[in-house]
Design goal:
Layout: E1 7-11, H1 17-28, H2 47-55, E2 59-65, E3 68-78, E4 81-89, H3 98-108, E5 114-119, H4 123-131, E6 135-136, H5 139-149, H6 154-158, E7 160-164, H7 166-173
Parallel strand pairs: 4-5
Antiparallel strand pairs: 1-2, 2-3, 3-4, 5-7, 6-7
């Protein structure tokens, strides 16, 4: 229970597709102003894009309250790292611990260093991940990592940051 809500975290099932789609697009509205105007579109993640992300190996975890999907977070294996992808919590439950529960669940299902990317202007997400031990990756690595592990447009690379967990930082600091 978090802030009076009984929250269950579980792996995505194909029957969750529509609920995940709705959750992502509704939650994206709360940070619309952090996305460059030329990158925003509605819906923010069309069904075809969500289907493509799942087909490309993004494994979603879902947070449920009373059987309703209220948050999602994806984990995607890429070469020697795992990427946190598409993390969204229903606006009415943001800042109630749902994102933290999803993050802990996802981390528990990863045995490799974790990277995540977000919009440079999304200070709420950057602050959230920072509170949970993720560190901003320096500009000397940011662009290389975005080009290596993500398949995103050039404009998104320009406007994004990368954060890393202690596992990635330890490996990188050791010169690997």
């Amino acid at each position: 229970m978090v802030d009076g809500f009984d929250i269950v975290i579980r792996e995505y099932d194909a029957s969750d597709f529509e609920a995940v789609y709705v959750t992502i697009n509704a939650a994206a509205m709360s940070f619309r102003d952090t996305i460059p105007a030329d990158r925003w579109h509605e819906p923010y993640m069309p069904r075809e894009e969500l289907s493509g992300e799942i087909a490309d190996g993004v494994r979603f975890s879902c947070a449920l309250v009373d059987g309703r999907v209220v948050g999602v977070m994806g984990l995607q294996r890429r070469d020697d790292v795992d990427l946190i992808r598409h993390a969204y919590v229903a606006s009415e439950l943001q800042s109630h611990g749902v994102g933290a529960m999803l993050l802990e669940y996802v981390k528990a299902h990863s045995e490799r260093p974790i990277l995540l990317g977000t919009w440079r202007a999304n200070v709420r997400a950057i602050s959230f991940y920072g509170r949970h031990g993720y560190q901003l990756v320096g500009e000397d690595h940011r662009e290389r990592l975005l080009r290596t592990y993500w398949q995103i447009p050039e404009r998104q690379i320009e406007e994004s940051i990368v954060m890393a967990d202690d596992g990635w930082v330890a490996v990188h600091a050791a010169g690997s």
